[in-house]
Design goal:
Blueprint lengths: L1 E11 L6 E7 L21 E3 L13 E2 L2 E2 L1 H4 L14 E3 L2 E4 H10 L9 E5 L7 H13 L4 E5 L6 H4 L5 E5 L5 H8 L4 H13 L3 E7 L7 H14 L4 E7 L5 H6 L14 H13 L3 E2 L3
Parallel strand pairs: 2-8, 8-9, 9-10, 10-11, 11-12, 12-13
Antiparallel strand pairs: 1-2, 1-7, 3-6, 4-5
Helix pairs in contact: 2-3, 7-9
The chain binds iron/sulfur cluster.
Amino acid sequence: MKINYFQRGFNFSQDGPGNRLVYHFQGCNLICPWCANPEGISKDGTLMTGDRVNGTYCEKGAVNGGKIDRTICRSCDKPCVKIPASGIKLSCVSEETESIADYAKSCEPMFFDGGGVTVTGGEPTVQFDALTELFMLLKEKGINTALETNGTHPKLPGLFPLIDYLIIDCKHYDSEKHREICGAGNETILKNIELACEERNRLLVRIPLIGGFNSSADDAVRFAETFEKITNDKCGFEFLMYHEFGKNKYERCGMTYTMTDEAKVGIEEVKLFTEIFNAHSLKTVRT
Ligand code: SF4
């Protein structure tokens, strides 16, 4: 089975234990406007422009004044992406699960300090069947697996036995606010977090703190009250500060970045959330 991904690389201890080979899968079912990887939202990849776009490699006349008319590109076989001088590339790489697992095995000497393979996104469970197949192959090869997911897939618990380290993101304790901004409610996410705590040894829940959305003291209390009902001491919580690292990619993807300075948070919010969660006997971590 083929997997579409847009990025592959190593990082140490950020997305699971030790030194890890991290795959960012294409496709996401949510629409969080602060997403740092806009090129990963489409399941089939996104055309990305470089500093200079050379229209001579487009026979359909889609390139004018350095801009692409992407409505024309939709029905095109995209020959331009195979020509580096065009200044246009496709974010997506398609690769068979066996090939990915073989490559991961060849990287085994790099998996020091308990490392292995992490799959993140995009949202990896958008390619659920291929993800399942990949994790089965990795387990057969004795490779440590980690998954970072938005937690919305109803079949996620079926994957638990194949995952050594699980990270579930949760953007809001209020389902309607979650739906309004991210495009789906949080019921399945909270249920999957609860089941993960019941069935697994370890779980990390990540909460991105976004000013004007979920980062006030009242929000911290409401988050903590929600999680103290459904988690146990196997669960850790990490707070991620809103950042603009992906902002410049939006234009390259032909998309509009809609976040404003209101979204910015500081270390004070992280400290506040940490104190309030700890006061509710919820364990906090920093990776
Ligand atoms: S994808 Fe096709 S239509 Fe679009 S710029 Fe490339 S060659 Fe032109």
